[in-house]
Design goal:
Helix 14 runs antiparallel to helix 15. The protein is about 55% helix and about 5% strand. The chain starts with 8 loop residues before the first helix and ends in an 8-residue tail after the last helix. The strands form two sheets. The protein has a three-stranded mixed beta sheet. With about 375 residues, the protein is mainly alpha-helical. The chain folds into three domains: about 50 residues; about 90 residues, no CATH class; about 190 residues, Alpha Horseshoe (Serine Threonine Protein Phosphatase 5, Tetratricopeptide repeat), CATH 1.25.40.
Length: about 375
């Protein structure tokens, strides 16, 4: 069975070794003690220790689709060129800038190594001492306590650190706890959505989506919570969080950043599921325009947005414009993406609209 997180292997090995060293001194409570010292979940540390006892399973390949637990708090890393926060790109296992700023993501492991070495060199006092050497990536877990900002240039090693005047107090470490809580919720979402929703409610406790300021961690948690509410059949409860996620993602990363487009798509879906077809129509129109700019007017995501816009037009009672838009979209999609299964689904929707219009006796004068 694979380890359920994406911590670097050397970091996991260091944590397991610390537990072993602690057990050599004190027989009981070693896992809890080390977990508390390193701001890790005790259950996660216990799993690592258990799998370390069976090398055949502990060293098995880790699933690439599992969300990675990051060393750096969201919003701490900034780009030197566009001056915006650099969010984590799960697909590339690195930090990516907003659209058009830099050609490829920067490796998260290299950045954590550079930051961790700087902390060990200049601020090792903030790292709990257990007598064993601390790996740089483990030291990077404490970056938000001593660093106010990390600015990265053209490469992962081209880094400028802005140090805090004094180390952050223990209460500021709640941010790091929030990062781990959201990552755990994302891992649990496919199999245990109720537990994941509970964790997200804890992470967003005290956050009013109508008035709260922009915050990368809160925006991520709000988007995930809205997705869970949608899956659980509660689209009305998802509206506030989806709106917060969309507005703040656009503010933090720009309106055409992949995270912002995902949040916009989520909000449009929530509005449609809640029966707010007029608002959903305008949101899907906006999504289609952004996708046409970023992916291209003939890209599959753009055409898919146009197809859903046509279906919403039909829901609003505009049968003829809906049929025209959907038919044009099908023609373009079939030409640009031959044999794509979405073309069949679009055609089925168009046939359903025609059949419904015929059954209701609509008389549309085609142009």
């Amino acid at each position: 069975m694979a380890v359920p997180s994406r911590y670097p292997p050397d970091l996991i090995d260091a944590v397991v070794q610390r537990v072993a060293d602690a057990r050599a001194v004190k027989a009981y409570g070693a896992v809890t003690t080390v977990a508390r010292q390193l701001n890790l979940e005790p259950r996660l540390v216990q799993k690592w220790v258990t799998r370390a006892a069976t090398p055949a399973t502990f060293h098995a390949g880790r699933p690439a689709a599992t969300p990675r637990v990051l060393c750096l708090r969201p919003g701490l890393l900034h780009c030197r060129f566009c001056r915006r926060p650099m969010p984590y790109a799960d697909l590339h296992e690195g930090y990516q800038c907003q659209q058009g700023c830099r050609p490829r993501p920067l490796a998260d492991a290299t950045i954590a190594d550079v930051v961790g070495r700087a902390i060990l060199r200049h601020a090792a006092r903030v790292i709990p001492s257990t007598g064993a050497p601390t790996p740089p990536q483990l030291a990077a877990l404490h970056a938000d306590r001593v660093l106010a900002r990390i600015t990265v240039g053209a490469s992962p090693t081209d880094i400028t650190l802005t140090w805090r005047a004094t180390p952050a107090s223990a209460c500021d470490r709640r941010i790091a706890e929030g990062v781990r809580r959201v990552a755990t919720a994302r891992t649990l979402a496919p199999t245990d959505p109720l537990r994941a929703r509970q964790l997200l409610h804890v992470s967003l406790a005290g956050v009013d989506p109508a008035t709260a300021p922009a915050h990368p961690l809160h925006a991520e948690a709000a988007a995930l919570l809205a997705e869970l509410q949608l899956r659980l059949g509660r689209p009305t409860d998802a509206i506030g969080w989806a709106t917060y996620a969309q507005q703040n993602s656009a503010y933090l990363y720009g309106p055409t950043h992949p995270r912002s487009l995902h949040a916009l798509h989520l909000l449009a879906t929530v509005r449609r599921r809640a029966g707010h077809h007029q608002r959903a129509y305008h949101l899907y129109r906006q999504l289609g325009e952004h996708l046409a700019t970023t992916a291209g007017s003939h890209a599959h995501p753009t055409l898919a947005a146009h197809a859903i816009t046509a279906l919403i037009l039909y829901d609003l009672g505009h049968c003829q414009p809906a049929r025209t838009l959907l038919a044009d979209t099908i023609t373009t999609h079939r030409r640009e993406h031959p044999d794509h299964p979405a073309t069949i689904r679009m055609t089925q929707h168009l046939t359903r609209i025609w059949d419904d219009c015929a059954a209701k006796g609509h008389e549309h004068h085609e142009i």
